[in-house]
Amino acid sequence: ALAGRSRSRRGGCEMVTVAASLDATEAALSSIRAAPADSSAPAPHEPLASAPWRHAFSTLVSHRAFVSDGFGEVAFKLEEHWEFAVGAFTMEDVARDVTLLPPQFVASGMRHQGGVYNQPFAAGFSFADVDTRMDSATVVMLNAGFLVPKLASISLAMLEATGLPIWLNVYLSKPGLATSTQLHTDAQDVVLVQCTGRKRWRVYRPPPPGKTPSLDPFARGKGTDHMEFVEEDLLIDTVMEPGQVLYIPAGYPHTTDTLLEPVEDEVASQPSVHLTVGVDSHIWSLSYAHLRQHALTRAGQPAALSDGAPVSALPSAAQRLFGNLP
Questions:
Q1: From 216's CA, which of 88, 95, 142, 281 has a CA 20 to 30 Å away?
Q2: How far apart are CA 43 and CA 54, in angstroms?
Q3: What is the mean pLDDT of residues 4-16?
Q4: Which residues contact 113 (CB under 8 A, 6 or more apart)?
Q5: Residue 62: pLDDT band by 50, 70, 90 thresholds?
Q6: Cα angle vertex 164, ends 163, 166, to 5°?
């Protein structure tokens, strides 16, 4: 819920108490051990490739700390490495599989008339076109989990673990990009898994939706809506290494880059390839706000507030309406 995301309180003592509570919650979430002890031993009748993913996703999303305090509430990075994820999807896989996707599902960000938009590839594109575009921008393989056989089992693992609608994107970035993705928010709760290369992530506390009630809090920083960096709202500033896992709730602003401190190792020369596995609660209207809207609509009542303002205009204490349904 957004009320839980922006846990500010009046009074210095209360602020310290709340901050300490959030630190303790993030520490508990970061310490979750989800990876299987032996990823080389799948369950009976289960393909080797999907066994560790199934175990890890199921353990993570069913963990008491994640269910009670994490899901939709707190951004965190796992302390453990998922060794089975290292090299799970590489540029060699991209070269083989990217043209399995229709051109509108392969895109990169572009600036146009003062806004930021996705620019899809043209029909008949090739991996060489993707490689060239990556010289100046991050390329995304949208909905790859539905169309790439190697990723389908990973998508199925998250689907079965959550029991919720999901999707899987692949993001490709060469080293040296000052901005890989602009500061923005998304409508999905996501688990990010780094497979190759490195990428820097900065995650921020969501701004109060009431300050911009006409804008969708789950689609900020897109098109002509430019978000401003608020340094005191910075929650996470980390460089993701292969095998590391980051969780970001829906509505949390984040930005990425690959302009990193030089490191002399094999990973430094690799393009960053990471999987983003998202839970589509808000896309499929699985929130209290959508439940309220549907109930009022069925009753023939307006979904807006009495003064005609959208629900996002409510004070922060009421923003729990945007939380995921249990």
A1: 142
A2: 10
A3: 40
A4: 224
A5: very high
A6: 125
Among 77, 75, 28, smallest CA distance to 250 is for 75
Give the rounded percent of residues in the chain with a pLDDT score beyond 90.
62
Distance CA 45, CA 41 (A): 11
Is the pLDDT at 12 greater than 70? The verdict is no
How far is it between the farthest Cα atoms of the chain?
A: 64
Cα–Cα distance, 19 to 14 (Å, whole number): 8
Q: What is the DSSP string of 204-249?
A: EPPPPGGGSTTS-TTSTTSBT-PPPP-GGGEEEEEEE-TT-EEEE-
**pLDDT attached to residue 318:** 54
Residue 19's pLDDT band (cuts 50, 70, 90):
low
Instruction: List Cα–Cα distances, 59 to 12, 125, 163, 192, in angstroms.
Output: 37, 39, 14, 16
SS3 133: helix
171: CB partners within 8 A, 6+ apart: 138, 139, 140, 141, 180, 181, 272, 273, 274, 276
Q: How far is CA 82 from CA 10, 36, 70, 189, 265, in A?
A: 40, 9, 19, 19, 20
Q: How far apart are CA 272 and CA 275, in angstroms?
A: 10
Q: How far apart are CA 319 and CA 313, in angstroms?
A: 9
Cα distance between residue 287 and residue 217, in whole Å: 14
Instruction: Report the pLDDT value the prediction gives residue 17, as an integer from 0 to 100.
Output: 47
State how far the Cα of 91 lies from the Cα of 73, in Å rounded to an integer: 33
Residue 42, pLDDT > 90, answer no
Residue with tokens 């999901």: 166
Q: Which amino acid is at 49?
A: A
How crowded is the C-beta side of 301, counted as CA atoms within 13 Å? 10
